[in-house]
Amino acid sequence: MSRSQPAADGPVRRRRRPTMWVALAGIVLALLATFLLGPRAGGVALAVELVALGFVRAVARRPPYGISARSRAFDVTVLMGGGVLMAVLALTAQNM
User: How far from chain centre, in Å, is Cα 36?
Assistant: First the structure.
């Protein structure tokens, strides 16, 4: 059997994924807001993050790693639609 040898082009460059880390930080902040300020604030925080990520996906030239799954139109529709729906539910739900 032959073994494949790694290319000797030099060191492998690690890419930075800022959008993915910002999205993760937003989820953590929304979770903290839920526990510290209540479920309504956490829901609104998550909704704001989803709409912001939808905006980033809409205007970015290259698909950002971590928030792009399908076509641009599909991703923007799911992120922004989910954010608006989450905000409506968080602001109108009873007993929160």
Answer: 22
